[in-house]
Design goal:
It is a peripheral membrane protein. This protein is an alpha+beta fold. A hairpin with a 5-residue loop joins strand 24 (about 635-640) and strand 25 (about 645-655). Helix 2 (about 265-280) crosses helix 18 (about 720-735) and helix 10 (about 435-450) crosses helix 11 (about 460-480).
Length: about 800
């Protein structure tokens, strides 16, 4: 049994941001910090005061975190990035609103006295005396203090205050992990009610000292002759009121939801999983079929989450195709018009979208990646709409002439026709399409053809496939490649327009070039030859896709299963001197790394011969390195043991904070069950005769900071977590239990009156009764667990104030 916390974060957009550049604009991006630890960085949106990001993240972290903060920054090429403002959400606030935050909130000014982080280790003791008791406060050490100096560290000291008396520790230079081991004594008066204040400061020679945080201790709770020792989280000064500044820094639109789940052992979920799988295998239809009931009782706002949870559950059970086939049948049974088929946000549509993202993302990258990269690299001006054409000068030096509108339109059409190679690449990708995706599309094609068999509906099965493949998968990825992990940054305005026009062409092909789709935008006419050719290619592709025999598909699936795909791969910079030479960013060498379920390997290029660097079973920790160690904030360390059991450390540099956290997440996930994982580590490097972080002189001594093995970013290629998916489905069913009981009563009354038609297998009310019993058993299992029963999700969505 384990308690798991996760944060769903969607950073939507900003508005009315202040201008930070001399051009009267800004280049904004967001940094998300959890307890002052940078976890996420959005892409920069250039030259705007109203940026749109639309980026979604899922962060898994220990349930002990305190705050999540969103910093809006202005990127500068020649100087440090400017801080525009921030939004801070305490954990307690998120926990009290399970449906989360949604809406606009004002950015507030960043106050240095509030930017505190880290913990301090204290020992407190009240000693009896002949005339009065004495308070003894031992200041031992601190960890993860905020770096306040340009060198990426601080010069911390501690000020202890009690009843007007102040005592200070010595100053530890250039460290965010100082050790003092100093003790102070104060005389206590009988019945004293004062508090002890322990403040941490960064010493500065030429300016005022910077505040690093404080701890306030109530003396009354300390008992005589009973020492108390522990780590205390540093707190900021009292937040200043800024109501008069609200709105001056702009606003940020967010969706943030905290989910705490107590996940029971797998055996507890087996009855629920088996019951749902039994229903899917039977393919039952009717008023009591469980999948149909789940769809009926699922509200629009949470349908995507429920669809994703169910899809992942059945994917883990090898029943994704059967589950989707059942949804296809349910939707076809209530659809009479072909032009509305799979166009609504039904459970079938949402489940299929999730399915393609989970099972088909690597395939999409293989087909789309080269074309998208070419569009970004060329940055050509493309426009087909005459009302939007911008005429500019062309020609060589001294011979400039204005380009005509006709020339612009013709060049644009030629450019887009060249990108039509995308459809050719798609038509050649039948064998690259994952077996489970092919099988699902084949079943969809057959079901639609059975439902609409007439010659007048010849194109309907093809359009059913393209409605998902083109309209809900390829076209959105072309328009927003950043959101489908095809690019690290959002496109600029010129590239965005090219991508939009290319996506429209793919949509027209996906609609099988119907007159209705052509009539909407007549200016797309120059692409009609390419669209018609694309339709023929796409129909040929789908015909081959759905005609592959089951035997061939299974043979290919077995072949692919023998090729263990990497968990993560990409270029990184490795420190070449292994700690023996000068520690600087120039000591890093670029290599291509591969992380599999067996080892972390590297090669000179993606196609070169691989050399194993670290065996997966030997990893003991994967953590960040202090910025001051290498002059970069994007360096990680992998602590491992070599073949003879000696501890080793590999230093790897990433391009940005997102890449850093993605690699850390991947390394932590694949090594989570390793024996000998470390509970502490050194965030610095051993330079000369001491650690740069805490100045300890013993190289093999205990680390000065705690490891963060449970902090991970969820990615599209993460392994399935069957128990968590089952728990999330249980949580949803618990929220609609009242509706399920009402439906059960209706079915029972119908059975007694003989109005419920007989169906093969179990009666509808019997399967629903089983489900209600399973929910009751799971509720009791949660109630008897040490952490108690998870609260049912209240129907409250907290709106951020404008």
């Amino acid at each position: 049994m384990a308690k798991r916390s996760s944060l769903y974060i969607r950073i939507v957009e900003g508005k009315n941001l202040p201008a930070k550049d001399i051009t009267g604009s800004s280049d904004p991006y967001c940094i998300v910090k959890v307890d002052n630890e940078p976890i996420i960085r959005t892409a920069t949106v250039w030259k705007t005061l109203c940026p749109f990001w639309g980026e979604e993240y899922q962060v898994h972290l220990p349930p002990t975190f305190h705050t999540v903060a969103f910093y809006v920054m202005d990127e500068d090429a020649l100087s440090r990035d400017d801080v525009i403002g921030k939004v801070c959400l305490p954990r307690d606030t998120l926990a009290s609103h399970p449906k989360g935050f949604s809406g606009w909130t004002h950015l507030t000014e960043v106050d240095p006295d509030e930017e505190v982080q880290g913990e301090i280790h204290l020992r407190l003791e009240v000693q009896p005396g002949t005339r009065a008791c004495r308070l003894r406060c031992s200041v031992l050490e601190a960890r993860d203090l905020a770096p306040k100096d340009r060198n990426g560290a601080s010069d911390p000291f501690v000020r202890v205050r009690y009843k007007g008396r102040t005592q200070e520790t010595s100053i530890v230079k250039k460290s965010c992990y100082p050790r003092w081991n100093e003790t102070f004594e104060f005389e206590l008066e009988e019945g004293a009610t004062e508090v002890l204040c322990v403040e941490t400061w960064d010493w500065d020679l030429v300016s005022r000292n910077d505040f690093l945080g404080k701890v306030v201790i109530d003396i009354q709770r300390l008992q005589v002759a009973q020492p108390e020792e522990g780590w205390f989280r540093l707190q900021p000064y009292q937040t200043k009121s800024r109501q008069h500044d609200e709105g001056n820094l702009g606003s940020l639109q967010l969706e943030v939801r905290l989910r705490d789940e107590m996940v029971l052992p797998s055996s507890c979920y087996q009855p629920l999983v088996q019951l749902l799988c039994h229903e899917v295998k039977l393919g039952m239809q009717g008023p009591g079929q469980l999948i149909s009931l789940i769809e009926e009782t699922t509200s629009t706002e949470c349908r995507q989450d429920v669809a994703t949870n169910l899809l992942k559950l059945f994917l883990g059970q090898g029943l994704a195709k059967d589950f989707l086939d059942l949804l296809f049948q349910l939707e076809l049974s209530r659809t009479s018009e072909t032009n509305t088929l799979f166009r609504s946000n039904s459970l079938a549509s949402k489940s299929m979208e999730s399915f393609l993202k989970v099972a088909g993302m690597q395939y999409l990258h293989g087909v789309l990646g080269p074309i998208i990269n070419k569009v970004f690299e060329e940055k050509k001006y493309v426009e087909l709409d005459p009302s939007k054409v911008e005429v500019k000068d062309v020609g060589c030096s001294g011979l400039h002439r204005p380009q005509t509108e006709a020339e612009v339109l013709e060049q644009s059409a030629q450019t887009l026709r060249a990108h039509g190679a995308l459809l050719s690449a798609l038509s050649r990708s039948v064998r690259a399409c994952p077996a489970v995706v092919r099988a699902t599309f084949r079943q969809l094609f057959r079901r639609v053809r059975e439902r609409f068999p007439g010659a007048q509906h010849e194109n309907v099965p093809f359009i059913a496939v393209t409605s998902f493949l083109c309209l809900r998968f390829f076209s959105p990825a072309i328009m927003s490649p950043k959101l489908f992990h095809l690019r690290e940054r959002h496109a600029d305005a010129r590239t965005s327009r090219t991508l939009l026009l290319l996506a429209k062409a793919v949509q027209n092909v996906g609609n099988m070039d119907t007159p209705a789709s052509r009539a909407k935008e007549a200016w797309m006419e120059p692409l009609q030859p390419t669209v018609r050719q694309g339709v023929a290619q796409l129909k040929d592709f789908i015909t081959k896709l759905v005609d592959i025999e089951e035997k061939d598909e299974l043979d290919l699936q077995r072949t692919l299963s023998l090729q263990a795909p990497p968990v993560k791969e990409g270029p990184l910079f490795i420190h070449r001197t292994k700690g023996k030479g000068p520690l600087m960013s120039s000591s890093f060498k670029k290599l291509y790394f591969f992380l599999t379920t067996e080892a972390l390997s590297f090669a000179k290029t993606p196609s070169s011969k691989k050399s194993a660097l670290i065996k997966l079973a030997n990893i003991r920790a994967a953590e960040k390195v202090e910025e001051k160690s290498f002059g970069s904030s994007h360096v990680m360390q992998v602590i491992y043991t070599d073949d003879v059991g000696r501890p080793q450390t590999a230093y790897l540099q990433c391009k940005c904070v997102n890449e850093l956290n993605q690699w850390l997440s991947a390394l932590r996930k694949v090594s989570i069950n390793n024996t000998g994982l470390l509970g502490s580590y050194h965030p610095g490097v051993f330079r000369g005769d001491k650690w740069s972080c805490c100045h300890q002189k013993e190289k093999t001594g205990q680390g000065c900071d705690k490891t963060r093995s449970r902090v991970t970013l969820q990615e599209w290629n993460d392994p399935l977590d069957h128990d968590l998916e089952a728990q999330l489905i249980y949580r949803h069913l618990l929220g609609v239990e009242a509706m399920l009981w009402e439906r059960h009563r209706e079915l029972s009354r119908g059975a007694e009156a003989g109005t419920v038609p007989a169906s093969p297998g179990e009666a509808p009310k019997d399967s629903l009764a089983q489900l209600l019993r399973v929910l009751q058993d799971l509720r009791e299992a949660h109630s008897s667990s040490p952490a108690g029963s998870p609260p049912s999700e209240p129907n409250c969505l907290l709106e951020l104030q404008t």
